[in-house]
Structure formats: C-alpha cells, structure tokens
Specification:
It is globular, with a radius of gyration of 24 Å. It is built from 27 helices and 16 strands. Helix 16 links the parallel strand 7 and strand 8. It binds FE(4)-NI(1)-S(5) CLUSTER with Oxygen and iron/sulfur cluster.
Length: 638
C-alpha cells in the first residue's frame, strides 16, 4: 500500500515515506507482506493444541471435517476463541495484580509511591465493607490491597471486586448461570485446562467459559486496575494536551513511554522533571516525555503528557530520528521497534524480567526500587542525546489540541452543577426525551492491516451525527483526538441534541462545549464507562442490558479488546468489532455470538441481552449500532 493508503494521518504517511526511503521496514510493510492471509486461520479452524496435529478443517464442508482426536469445527473454533480471551484476560489480571501488590508495598512503606486519592481509597474501602475506624490511611490502603490480592487466591465464593463493582442484577444472573468468578487466577487456570486437548468439547459450554473470562477481565482486570491506580496516582480530571507525531521536540531530549502500567511511566515522568537540569547541561532545553499506547493514555489523563502515537504507528516515533529512548513495560509492544531503533540512535529499554526484546537494553523495574530504575532510565536517555544524528531528524510541525481526563467522577462532577442532589438526572432526562439517543463507548486499537484511524473516526462521526453520546478509551481515543473530536470545536460533528447537551455541560466546566468524544482513559479504564452505566442503571432501577448503549472497536487488533468486548456482552451491551474475530469457520459459534434474542438457539443476546456485531464497513457498522440503540429505546418505552 502507498503511504496514503495506510493511514488518514498525513504525518504518519510522511514518516512512513521516510522509513521506506531509508530502507526501514515497519508493521505497515509487514502487514502487506502477510496478504493474503491463511483462510484456515482466518476462519478459526486450525488447531495445534497437541502433537497429533496440527489439524485443520475445510471450512467449505469438503475434505476432513474432524481433527485426529475427533474435534469438529465448532469445538476448534470455540476453543480458539476462548484461548484468545485467555490471553486478554490474563494480561489485564496481571496488570491489576502488579498494581495491587504495589499498593500493598506502598502501604507498608516498602515502595516509593504515595496514596494520592485518599477519598477514593475510603470509598473503595466502604464498598468492600472494610472498617476504617481508628485506622491510618496506610492501614486502610493495606486492607484494600489485601482484599484485591484475595481476588487472586480465594478458594470459593464470588470475587470481591465483582460484588463491589458489579450491578446486583448482573451478578445475580451470572450466579444463577454458574458464571460468577471465584478468583482471577483460578478462572484463568480453569480456562486453560478446559481449552486444552481432550478437555471441554462442547462449543456452547466453551463460549460460556468465555463469558466467565470476560467477567474476570472486567472486574479482576479493568476495575481493579483503575481503582487502585486512582488511589496511587490520582483520579483523572479534565486536562488539555497535544496529539500527533509533532509532539516530539527537536530542542529537547525525547523519551517515549510505551506500554500499560503507570507504576513505571509515572516514575519516569517524575525523574524527567528532577533531572531536567542535567538535560540542560547536555546542551538541550530539557526533557520531553511523550506517550505511546495506553501508558500514554494513563500519563495524559493524570499528568497532561502529550501523545505521539497509537499502536499501529509506534515504530514511526523512532523514525523521527529525534527519540533518545523508548521505555516499555508490557503489552502491545511490537518486537519490531528494536529493528527500527537499530537504524537510528534510539535506545529501547525494557523493564520487566518477563518481557524482554533481544538486542534492547534492560533496566529491571521493581516497584520497591522504582526511583533508582527510573533515574537510570532517564540518565541513559540524556546520555544518548550525544548520539543523535541531527541531519536525520524530521519532526512534523503541527499538533492537535485535545481534552481528556473524563473519569466517571469528573463527568458526575460537571453534571452535579446542573443538579446537585441527583447529578445523573440531567443525563437521564436527555436520554428519556431523546436529546441523547444513546451512548457509545468507542474503544480499542489501531491495526496495521487497516487504514489507520478510518474505522474509528467514521464510526464515531456517524454516531455523533445521530445524537449518540460518545465516550472513548485506548488507541481509538488517539484516532479521535487527531481528527478534532476531543476538542470543543469538534462538537459541530454532533446532531443538535447531543450538541446542546455538550454545550450546556461545557458552560459548567468553563468551556465553549465539552468535546464530542469524552476520553475516559486507557484500556483498563473501560471500567469508567462501565461505572457510568452501572450508576445510570441503578438510578433507573433497570439492568445495564436495558440501557440504549453500545460498544464499538472498529480497528481491533489485540485479544485484550476481545476480552473487554466479552465483558460488555456479559452485561448485555452490544459490541461491534471491525476486524474479523476469526470465528467464521463455525456457524454455531458465529450464531451464538451474533444471533438475536428471539432466536430459538442459544445466543448471547438471548441470555444476556447483548451480542457481537462484526461489520468491517464503518458506515454500516454505525447503522447497525443505531438499530440496536433504537431497539433498546423502544423496549424501554422511549
Ligand atoms: O490496551 S487499545 S492497541 S495499546 S490493546 Fe493495545 Fe489496543 Fe492500543 Fe492499550 Ni488496548
Ligand atoms: Fe488435532 Fe485434536 Fe490435537 Fe487439535 S487437539 S491438534 S484437533 S488432534
């Protein structure tokens, strides 16, 4: 593909042009080389779970229809789907566990972090039924951390965070179906076991196992991470920052922070500020931290750090020739960054013992020694400035201004200026009278296979136009920000109804309008839209599945996005994906996930009230989402 066909973003197109001129290969080139894709893998019908295989089923019904063990396409497709949910769920659970352990060590005085949001800590303690009387802040934090860690080891019952954050109606349904998770590690281990060769062979049962993983992902991963990160680093509030490759600064030492867990990125920011003089002594104007992927989102929300790139163009930040270091922790880090870095002076610094890249520098980052590690990392970047080839620096000129930091707390805060006693009432009224037709969470990734930003931006604009209130997280937020949808001016894209609400709320916040897409954070922060939905459903005394709300992930790439989607489906929220979820090899699996509530067979829509919508065309996708929103409105009598 020509650069103009890989991204909507002119800066990305230009930087890709530079990479190609210099013979540097990126994910966009490799995505092209991978075409056409294997039809068996695409349909989900290849299995390599044991050494009798690999086996593959002919999707067209001709040729072998069972693997050596007798597994048919339905079993293989369901197993493969569940196995990818395991990947996503384990990633989020491990993220949460690391934060919980860091909170414990902080409370015990063993790690150099502080409790930043004491109010939220106490609200969480209360939600967990912990007594706080006569206890110090650190003692309460320790109790909360132990409750969190219990969610990785309790032998029976229901996970603390499911009881705490889940809506009663949803939790009761999961319990009645035997799907309420006991603890994250137990459920993940069980899923690995049932998805193995010679274990669970019932496709429907496997898909229900997938729902259980979705619930683990949501509560043991997303909610737990967000809650404890807010306690340690503060609950986000509206903040202004800049987007695009142009946020790199030629006159400064540039450090990109990439990955997911704020334990590392927050410390890098702190030490960059502390060592600014050292950077000036090296002949620069200081240190410029830029964000990539969800570490970027975390820093943006709490520190106003600007964002250089979403997932698919991460290598191009290096191609600028102006990046001294790219510091990574975990998830969505392309191994390809090392090859690209070897063509420039950038030092790739890995930080976790279990996530290394051959050829990269490794600085071990343990929360207990966070200061020493962050200092070492920033000093390495300062030192590496001497190796910058100033002739080969190309930084695009423009950046886009965007507002972020819309935590559920921040949104409620703005709403409370309209109705102090019942802050949700103005939102409920607008939903009831149709000023707001519905709510959409635009979430997830960018994918080098897809033309970057097109799906995300088109679905969002189509929904906005039709008076859907758009919330956003993850790399999708990056697409929306670069295209002006996280700026008050972007409100012109909205229908008259949503526009009037955003303007009214904007006035309360001292802005001409709230932006048409409200950025709620990283991918683990998909807990935030979920919190808002729970609050709305509780206030209305209805199930979350009854609210006219949808999720959309147009440029899906990571299994984490699928597990987040499954989390929403387990609550009865419809979820759109724009990239093939690789289940088409089984009509049973496809129908269970995408069929309707009125169908005779089992479908997630019938069981939970929400389904998966696979639609690569973003305009059609928006139409289908609107149809579901309207259906739910009708069922509510609106
Ligand atoms: O967790 S949105 S590409 S960076 S998976 Fe990855 Fe997708 Fe970006 Fe954040 Ni989420
Ligand atoms: Fe083949 Fe069955 Fe082994 Fe899969 S588990 S590789 S289908 S024999």
């Amino acid at each position: 593909r020509n650069p103009v066909d890989v991204s909507m973003d002119v800066q990305v197109q230009d930087m890709l042009g530079k990479a190609r001129e210099q013979g540097v290969e990126t994910a966009f080139d490799r995505a092209d080389q991978m075409s056409p894709r294997c039809p068996f893998g695409s349909a989900g019908v290849c299995c390599r779970l044991c050494l009798e295989g690999p086996c593959r089923i002919q999707p067209n019904g001709k040729g072998p229809q069972r693997g050596v063990c007798g597994a048919n396409a339905d079993t293989i497709v369901a197993r493969n789907f569940m196995n990818s949910l395991i990947q996503g769920t384990a990633a989020h659970a491990e993220h949460a566990r690391e934060v919980a352990l860091a909170l414990l060590h902080t409370a015990e005085g063993k790690a150099p972090y502080h409790i930043k949001d004491v109010g939220k800590l106490y609200r969480i303690a209360e939600g967990l039924n912990l007594s706080v009387e006569g206890k110090s802040v650190n003692e309460v934090a320790k109790d909360v951390a132990l409750k969190a860690l219990e969610d990785f080891q309790r032998p029976e019952g229901t996970m603390n965070w499911v009881s705490f954050r889940g809506q009663e109606k949803s939790v009761a349904k999961w319990q009645s179906l035997g799907l309420a998770p006991v603890n994250s590690h137990l459920e993940i281990a069980k899923a690995v076991t049932r998805g193995a060769m010679g274990s669970d062979a019932d496709p429907i049962n496997l898909l229900l196992g997938g729902i259980n993983l979705g619930i683990v992902d949501g509560y043991g991963g997303l909610h737990l991470s967000t809650d404890l990160q807010d306690v340690l680093f503060g609950t986000p509030q509206a903040v202004k920052a800049n987007y695009s490759l142009g946020v790199l600064d030629e006159n400064k030492i540039n450090i990109a922070v990439h990955g997911h867990i704020p334990l590392l990125s927050e410390k890098v920011v702190e030490w960059a500020r502390k060592l600014d003089d050292q950077a000036k002594a090296a002949g620069t104007e200081g240190i410029n931290i830029v964000g990539v992927c969800c570490s970027g989102n975390e820093l943006l929300m709490r520190q106003g750090v600007s964002i250089a790139s979403s997932f698919s163009s991460q290598e191009l930040v290096i191609v600028s020739g102006a990046l001294e270091a790219m510091v990574v922790d975990i998830q969505c880090i392309m191994p390809g960054i090392q090859q690209v870095a070897e063509c420039y002076h950038t030092e790739i610094i890995t930080t976790l013992g279990h996530v290394k890249i051959a050829g990269a520098t490794h600085v071990d980052f343990e929360p207990e020694h966070a200061d020493e590690a962050a200092k070492e990392i920033v000093e390495k970047a300062i030192k590496n400035y001497a190796n910058r080839d100033h002739q080969n620096v190309s930084i695009p000129k423009d950046t886009v201004e965007a507002y972020a930091g819309f935590s559920a707390e921040q949104i409620t805060d703005v709403l409370s200026k309209l109705n102090e006693e019942k802050p949700l009432q103005p939102l409920i009224d607008a939903l009831k009278n149709g000023t707001i037709r519905g709510i959409a969470a635009m979430v997830g990734c960018t994918n080098p296979r897809e033309k970057q930003d097109v799906g995300n931006v088109t679905v969002a604009k189509e929904l906005m136009k039709k008076d859907v209130l758009v919330l956003t997280t993850g790399c999708t937020a990056h697409s929306l920000a670069k295209n002006g949808l996280m700026n008050p001016d972007g409100v012109k894209e909205c229908g008259e109804g949503v526009k009037s609400v955003l303007k009214l709320l904007g006035e309360q916040a001292g802005l001409p309008s709230l932006p048409p897409a409200l950025h709620m954070g990283s991918c683990v922060d998909n807990s935030r839209p979920a919190d808002l939905l729970k609050a709305l459903a509780d206030e209305l005394d209805i199930a979350i599945s009854d609210i006219p709300v949808v999720g959309s992930c147009p440029e899906t790439h990571n299994p984490k996005a699928l597990s987040i989607g499954t989390y929403f489906i387990s609550h009865g929220v419809d979820v759109h994906v724009g990239v093939d979820p690789q289940v088409s090899g089984s009509s049973l699996v496809t129908h269970t996930l995408t069929g309707n509530r009125g169908d005779e067979e089992v479908t997630t829509d019938r069981l939970f009230g929400g389904k998966l919508i696979y639609e690569p065309d973003p305009v059609l996708a928006a139409e289908k989402l609107i149809e579901r929103i309207d259906m739910k409105r009708k069922l509510l009598g609106l």
